C-alpha cells in the first residue's frame, strides 16, 4: 500500500518544504498526500504532477483535520516544518497535532533533517516492519 503522508509548513518554512518535496518528487508521486491549504497549494504549484488533497488552512482548522486523520489511522507519516520562533494564533492546534502524532506513534518529522532521514529510509524500501 502506498504511504499516506501529511505535509504542513509554517509560513517561514514553506519554501524549505516545497524545495524538499521537489527534490523527492519521484517518491512523493508514489504516495497519497494530504496537506493544509496554503502549504498544499504551494506544493501543487511547484510539483503539478503530485496529487495533493487540500484541507483547510492551519489557522482555520487544517492542523486539527490532519490530527483527526492521524487518530483514524489514515496517516503513516507527518512531515511538518515548524517555525519555532514565531508566535502562532493557533499554537494549541499545532501542539495538539504533534501530540496525536506521538500518541499514535506515526513517523513524524518536524524539520528538514529528520524529514530527509525518513525519506532516505522510505526510498530505500524500508516499510517500517
Ligand atoms: O498553519 C499551518 C500549520 O500550523 C499551516 O497552514 P497553511 O498550510 O494553510 O499555511
Automatic annotation (TrEMBL):
GO molecular function: methylglyoxal synthase activity
Binding site for substrate: 10, 14, 36-39, 57-58, 90
Active site, UniProt feature: 63
InterPro entries to which the protein is assigned, alphabetical: Methylgl_synth, Methylglyoxal_synth_AS, MGS-like_dom, MGS-like_dom_sf
EC top class, as a word: lyase
Keywords: Lyase
Catalysed reactions, semicolon-separated: dihydroxyacetone phosphate = methylglyoxal + phosphate
PROSITE patterns in alphabetical order: METHYLGLYOXAL_SYNTH, MGS
Keyword match Lyase: yes
Membrane-spanning ranges: none
Domain MGS-like: 1-129
Keyword Cell cycle tagged: no
Documented EC number(s): 4.2.3.3
Functional note: Catalyzes the formation of methylglyoxal from dihydroxyacetone phosphate.
Similarity annotation: Belongs to the methylglyoxal synthase family.
NCBIfam families listed in its UniProt record: MGSA (TIGR00160), PRK05234.1 (NF003559)
The protein's name: Methylglyoxal synthase
Amino acid at each position: 500500500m502506498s504511504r499516506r503522508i501529511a505535509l504542513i509548513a509554517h509560513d517561514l518554512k514553506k519554501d524549505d518544504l516545497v524545495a524538499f518535496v521537489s527534490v523527492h518528487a519521484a517518491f512523493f508521486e508514489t504516495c497519497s498526500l494530504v496537506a493544509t491549504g496554503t502549504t498544499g497549494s504551494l506544493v501543487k504549484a511547484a510539483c503539478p504532477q503530485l496529487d495533493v488533497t487540500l484541507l483547510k488552512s492551519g489557522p482555520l482548522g487544517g492542523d486539527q483535520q490532519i490530527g483527526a486523520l492521524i487518530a483514524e489511522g489514515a496517516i503513516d507519516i507527518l512531515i511538518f516544518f515548524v517555525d519555532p520562533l514565531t508566535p502562532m494564533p493557533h499554537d494549541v492546534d499545532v501542539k495538539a497535532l504533534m501530540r496525536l502524532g506521538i500518541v499514535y506513534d506515526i513517523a513524524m518529522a518536524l524539520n528538514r533533517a529528520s524529514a530527509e532521514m525518513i525519506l532516505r529510509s522510505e526510498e530505500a524500501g524500508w516499510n517500517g516492519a
